[in-house]
Design a protein that fits this description.
alpha+beta; about 25% strand; globular
């Protein structure tokens, strides 16, 4: 089964090419979209070839989600922790974007391995930013606590005007996805795929993976959610995450896989 990569391949290749040719005063101006929801813009001027501006436009958040200053909560802290001195957050960002990062490529580590790892992390900016709230919740789960100032139900954006929902508890975190598809054929394929996906995990006896359920109607945990946020035509998928699923290095993979679950399903529906 396909596993989506956390980094943007085009962004990583662009960064690698730029770093390998820093002595050349080349002007760059690239604009592209990935996952049908995140828009990127890269700019480099010949006047300052060591500086690269990276702007990111995130999915439009529905009303039930919490964005602070145009970003998911915890995103600023996550950016600073991930990138350190190489990155400066511009305030305000470029027009039409949620975030603009100023990268000083001359401050990259001289060690080739460390430099490449940091560039991969920069190319994973989507995961760093959109995954920040979920990372906070799951990091607390690893220590069997609940993050302060987080309610009993959390709505996180994962597609334009669409949320998935997180129910944080000290011993487990339940994550629920209303699955929506615009095309009736895609809806039928997705419904069949999700039922088979859940059944395959159950019958395979995979004790090391999170339990997974599918239902046609909203789970009881979403009883307080407005009806507009629950218009799912391919049912609801729920994962129950326990501390063992997010310990140590498992955390990064869990955040990415859960943040991109709809894209994962959509890939299989289209292919």
């Amino acid at each position: 089964m396909i596993l989506l990569q956390p980094h943007s391949r085009f962004l990583l290749q662009t960064l690698l090419n730029r770093v390998q040719n820093l002595e050349k005063a080349i002007e760059l101006d690239y604009l592209w979209v990935e996952f049908d929801d995140v828009r990127y813009h890269i700019q480099v001027s010949t006047k300052n070839p060591n500086v690269l501006l990276l702007s990111v436009s995130l999915p439009i958040p529905p009303p039930e989600t919490v964005f602070l200053g145009g970003l998911p909560f915890g995103a600023i802290e996550a950016i600073k922790a991930a990138y350190g001195v190489i990155v400066q957050i511009l305030d305000p960002p470029r027009d039409g974007f949620n975030l603009t990062l100023k990268l000083n490529l001359s401050k990259l580590p001289p060690d080739e391995g460390l430099r490449h790892s940091l560039l991969v992390k920069i190319a994973s900016v989507r995961e760093v930013v959109l995954g920040a709230p979920l990372r906070i919740v799951l990091k607390h789960l690893a220590s069997r606590t609940v993050a302060p100032d987080i309610g009993q139900l959390l709505a996180l954006v994962h597609r334009p005007n669409e949320s998935f929902f997180v129910v944080p508890q000290a011993e487990k975190v339940t994550i629920i996805y209303p699955m929506r598809f615009k095309d009736s054929v895609d809806t039928a394929f997705a419904t069949s795929f999700l039922q088979e996906f859940v059944e395959a995990r159950r019958t395979a006896g995979l004790n090391n993976v999170p339990p997974c359920l599918w239902s046609l109607t909203p789970p009881i945990e979403l009883k307080e959610v407005p009806a507009d946020a629950l218009s799912a035509n391919a049912g609801f998928v729920s994962f129950v995450i326990y501390p063992r699923h997010v310990e140590g290095k498992k955390l990064d993979r869990a955040v990415w896989n859960l943040s991109t679950f709809h894209a994962y399903v959509n890939y299989h529906v289209k292919h």
